[in-house]
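An example makes the point: we print one protein in full, the chain in one-letter code, the fold tokenised, without further comment:
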Amino acid sequence: MLHLRIIAPPHLSDAVVKALRADGAVAHLAVLPGAAVQPPGDVILCDVAREGANAVLDHLRTLGVEHEGAIAIDESAVVLSDAAQLAAARTPGTGADAVVWEEIEHRTGQDTRLSATYLVLLIVATVIAAVGVLLDQPILIVGAMVVGPEFGPLAGLSIGLVQGRRPMVVRSATALAVGFPVAMAVTVAATWVMTAAGLVDRSMLLADRPLTDFIWRPDALSWIVGFLAGIAGMVSITSARSGALIGVLISVTTVPAAANVAVAAAYGVPHEAWGSALQLLINLAAIVAAGALTLTAQRLWWRRVRPPARPVSVAARQPRRGGARAQKAV
């Protein structure tokens, strides 16, 4: 279940409580009158079944709570309560498959920004992958995949496209459009430095590399792998599962290709650089397309399982005059 902590100004508090009490997905409702100091208002606490969270949050946002107060959402790992089980049982769908839009937007929001941390991690991952390419060592490729941070912007781009969030689309696209070229440029320089130091040479790139030459030979399977990675990544985000291993799967189709572009460019092997660049573009497009299609399918499914809540009437937003409210819990 999800735990909501709501700060509602006095003129909205009654409408918020009424909306929460009327929704079958809500359990453990408590009101602390006047407990909030900044912004001033009542603190309202409740637990919500994941599968009913979107309708509840839409209702609260329609009331304007996010503008005049606040809504905090926390994941409750364990809730021991018959009321919680009853709320989940009477709410259509299953919590494991529920898509809570505000949650996934927040989860990917920070990862979509072009930051120094993001650039450092992407550069380190690309350089490690470049060494793996030259040595034909899959273990180094896997290490680079673990470090690669590009899962966040790719997920953010898919979410932004489906949700119509232009700022998220711009941030995500910027992180990808700037991050990969910068990482590849640094990798080119690193390759020259390692070559000058006698650690690597051009013959290593031109030699047979049976374990890693797939990186620069795009084919139909490249699209399939990227598409499946996009589906897996988006499902992991929307189902609140750990995205760490999924991020590794995403990186297998992106970071190694970017590294091979850089190494081939550093040694003047244009056909391999072009093949790797094409591989990278195919995989990026496949991941974003799969993520967007997965989100769209999930949205359509949930609209069928649980139709959107009815809009709140204007009268429900009007201030309620008279008598102070005592602290109450339902």
About this structure: The chain has two domains: 2-96, 104-305.
